[in-house]
Design goal:
Elements lengths: L5 E5 L5 H8 L3 E6 L3 H10 L4 E3 L7 H11 L10 E4 L21 H13 L3 E4 L4 H4 L1 H4 L1 H11 L2 E4 L3 E3 L10 E3 L2 E4 L21 H4 L15 E3 L10 E3 L17 E5 L1
Parallel strand pairs: 1-2, 1-4, 2-3, 4-5
Antiparallel strand pairs: 5-9, 6-9, 7-8, 10-12, 11-12
Helix pairs in contact: 4-7
């Protein structure tokens, strides 16, 4: 019978990439995320998934074997799609722009390498536009493309996508490098959504009512305002999904503490 597509998400955060594939019928089989509250959220949403909190602490052979043992697919490969949002600190204009000299920049190439190792058919990552714009200086995207091509992947042309122009409520722009294995790459190149909105001009433009927020992004437990508690642990940054003690607008990037 038909088997669902298996997705592994690295540097998962709120799992924005894998959630999209879930909505299309895919199953998330593994998640790697360093923030414990977000890993708890992932476990609550995907109780059968393999969970790891440290990318560099994962033994790749054991990881692949564990995925193969749980898979019901009679096919090669421990997963079908690998997604992830490696750290953008090294390439962000808001940071020190150390680029390839910042060890965190290695997460991008290491993610591609893990996808190749697991035998996936597609690798989709997310990062800031400087991954593409300044590749002539740091060479990170070029290195990823070379290793992917050597492993039989086709590199889909990377484009910068504006959140506002895709119907979002922020001025952020991101690039989504995509590598598809040649065995399945006879499909058309993906095309970004057409312009459906304008960049926000005020904080109010960025707010969303509670009723409009998917339960997918709620942390287990009750969320409370930071200024109402004195806890030193359990802090998590939620990307615009925080309820202030009831029905209230949600502020993107709010930092909250949670109660399990």
């Amino acid at each position: 019978g038909h088997q669902p597509i298996r997705v592994v998400e690295l540097w998962a955060g709120l799992r924005a990439l894998s959630v999209f594939f879930n909505q299309k019928g895919a199953v998330t089989t593994a998640i790697v995320e360093g923030e414990e509250p977000l890993l708890q959220l992932a476990g609550a949403r995907h109780p059968k998934a393999v969970l790891h909190s440290d990318f560099y602490g994962v033994h790749w052979d054991s990881f692949r074997r564990e995925l193969l043992e749980r898979s019901t697919h009679g096919v090669m490969g421990a997963a079908d799609i690998l997604t992830g949002g490696p750290s953008c600190v090294a390439l962000s204009d808001a940071g020190k722009m150390k680029m390839q000299k910042d060890k965190r920049s290695e997460q991008i190439l290491e993610s591609v390498r893990m996808g190749i190792f697991l035998g996936v058919k597609a690798i989709l990552l997310e990062n800031v536009p400087n991954l593409l714009r300044k590749d002539s200086k740091h060479g990170i995207l070029t290195a990823c493309n070379k290793e992917a091509e050597d492993a039989g992947f086709r590199c889909i042309p990377v484009q910068s996508v504006s959140h506002a122009k895709c119907g979002g409520r922020s001025q952020r722009a991101r690039v989504f490098p995509l590598w598809i294995h040649k065995s399945v790459s006879d499909m058309s190149d993906p095309v970004p959504d057409s312009d459906r909105g304008e960049a926000p001009c005020s904080v109010r433009d960025c707010l969303r009512e509670v009723e409009d927020i998917s339960e997918e992004v709620y942390l287990p437990g009750r969320l409370v305002r930071v200024d109402e508690v004195r806890w030193n642990e359990g802090e998590a940054t939620l990307l615009g999904h925080l309820v202030y003690g009831g029905k209230a607008p949600v502020i993107p990037g709010s930092t909250v503490r949670y109660r399990s």
